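explain this:
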Amino acid sequence: MKMRVDWPSRGHGYTDEEINAVVQVMKSTGSALTQGTNVQKFEEDFASYLGVNKVYSTMSCAHSLDIAAMLADIQPGDEVIIPAHTYCASAISFARRGAIIKWADIDPESLTMSPASIKLLISKKTKAIVLVHLYGLLSPHVQDIAEFAKNRGVLLIEDCAQSLGAKLDETHSGTFGDIGCYSFHAQKNLSTLGEGGMIVVKSNDLASKVSGLRMNGHAPFENKPEYWLPAMTNVDLDIDGMWPMKSSMSETQAAVGRLVLKRLNDITEQRRTRGLAFRDAMEKFPELKFQTIHTPEAQSHHLLPARYISKSKTRDDLIRLLMSDYGIKTIIQYYPLNRYDLFQKTGHGDADIPETDNFFDNMISFPFSVEINDSDFAYVIDSVKSALQQLRG
C-alpha cells in the first residue's frame, strides 16, 4: 500500500512570526549572525523558563554532552554509568574521553534508568551518572538518583534531549542534578531550525568554564593597554588538559527559539492531549503496554512507544502489517548501545540488561508529532486498532 502516514521529520512547524524573525536577522546587515543579541536573549528566556540563573547555547545536545564530559573531568579509566537504552550521543561524549561505560538497565514501567541497576554498577571509579529522560518522560526516580549521586560524590548529568517541557512539582528536567543538556533538533518539541542545544550547570565554578569550552578557548586578555593589544582576544585553557571546541548558536536559530519557547507550553499540551488520546483508544488492547506516567506534567510526550505483548505474534508482525495494509510507518527505538558495532569494537560490548533487551526486542514506536494532521492521526489510531484485531486472528 502507498505510504499514508510517514515517520515525521519535524517536531513542529513554524508560524509566520517565526519565519519573519529569520528574515529580519538576514536583513539586519549591521548586526551579528552569530553570538549576538538574539542568542543572549534566548539564553536569558530559556534560563527563566527553567527557573535557573544561567544557561549556555550550543550547536547540539551532543555538544552539550561533550562539554559535560569535560566539566566532569572524565579521564581514561574513569567509569560512567549510562543506560544502554538511549540514543548513541548519550554515551559517545564520555567514551571519546576514554571512560569505561557501565551499561545500566531500565525500569520496565518508566523505561528510564533503574536505580537498582545504578547501585549495582557504582564503584570507587565512578565519575558520573548520565540519567536520560527518555521518550519525553522525566524519570520518576530522578530525586532518588540525584540524592544517591550527591551522597556518593558522583556528578549527575541529565540528558534532556527528549524531555523539554517535563517537570515535577514545578522543577524542570535537567535541574535536579549537576548538569542538564537539551536538544533543539528538527524532531524535538522545540526546534531551532533543525539543530541546536543548551546546557545548564549548577556549580558556578563549573559554569564559568563553559563559555571558553564552547568557543575555542576565547578569553579576554587582562590589563590590556589598548583594545587591540596584544591581540583582540586571548585563547586559553579553561580546564587543564581539556582542549576547547567550537559550538555556538546562530542568530537565526536563537530568534526562532525565543518565539517557539513562548508557545512551548501550548505545544506540550497539544502533545499531551494527543498522546493520552492514543493511549485511551487502545484501552481494550492489552497487547500494547505503554510507558507509565507517574504525574501528567512529568511527560512532555516527545515520542509514543509501547511494548507489544502476544503469545502468537511479534512486534515485527505488527510493524509489517501497519506498513503493508495501512501505509503507516512505525519504527523501533533504541537499539541497545552495547549491541552496536561502534561500542563493541571499542570495548563497551558487555552488559547485563535483561529489561532493556526484553523491551527493545518487543517495542514499537508509533508516528507522533503535532505536525501530523488530525485526520491522519485519527487514521493511525483506527488502523492500529484494526491491525491489532487482525493479529488476534
Observations:
- The longest strand covers residues 126-132.
- The chain has two domains: 16-262, 264-392.
